[in-house]
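Example 3.2
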Amino acid sequence: MKRMILISSIFLIIISGYAQINEKQERQFYKQGDWEFRFSSNIGSISIQTIDPTNYEYTENGIYLNVGIATGFYIINGLSIEPELDINLCSEGLSLSVLGNLCYSFYIPQKNIYPYVKLGYGVSNDPKNTDELFAKLDFKTINASAGVKFMYFRGMAFITEINYRNLSGSNTFYQGTPDSYTTESTSSIISVLVGISFLL
């Protein structure tokens, strides 16, 4: 009888220890049903390629700055739908971007590091038309990035990423006059993002 109690006790201790290890290895953050709010800023370079009506092509390079806010909802563990609103600044002026992203946060057991990849699509406006910052969003925008979230408080993370954006569209100048003309423009942006995210 004593032997049976001893064996049962050892068995329960082993199972209990195994359950605790499994619990620690389960994903604790970025799970289905979670909400994430992010505030961020980017700095990088922008290259704007413009083709005028005579097919003359010229390129302008400059510094790119950005501040943004995003919210994400996790539809399954690790995968979130993430709408994003950004205000962008470059040598040409201010512009606005509205994006819809899909983001996947990878899970590394027993670590507070969550690598992620993100892909999105949206609309922006041309910084050359600063009078229409909130009125005309007609530049197609592709957004792609890879980064890392460092969870340093429960529900709060420091984030950093490398971001690439491609904007393309056309501009009509002096519309409605005999001098009216249209140019095609493509912007390529590579930047580094830093920010803070809050998980609810």
